[in-house]
């Protein structure tokens, strides 16, 4: 079954890293991929997201129509900064794999969720 590993952190903290600190953090992330990629537990790789200031938010306006605005308007310290797709037997295995992720500067929490699977009608 597929699980999404959501990586939370403060992207402002990440942006404040020196080049050497960022390089060290990324080396830890690459080492994590090198550990799990050969096991088949990483389903579709992952995606690192741009900082929150680059976002657009789509919400329903008062009439139910889509309204597009710049950036997220929720005042959150932690935002989703990346997503990794895992292929695991159950959520406990996915959580154990997630627990090995390097929680370096700018990455403070992980959330693991089963991915919905719907059959076409």
TrEMBL record:
Residues 42-66 are annotated as: Disordered. InterPro entries: Dimeric_a/b-barrel, YCII. Residues 50-59 have a biased composition (Basic and acidic residues). Pfam families: YCII. Residues 1-116 form the YCII-related domain. Belongs to the YciI family. This is YciI family protein. It comes from Nonomuraea ferruginea.
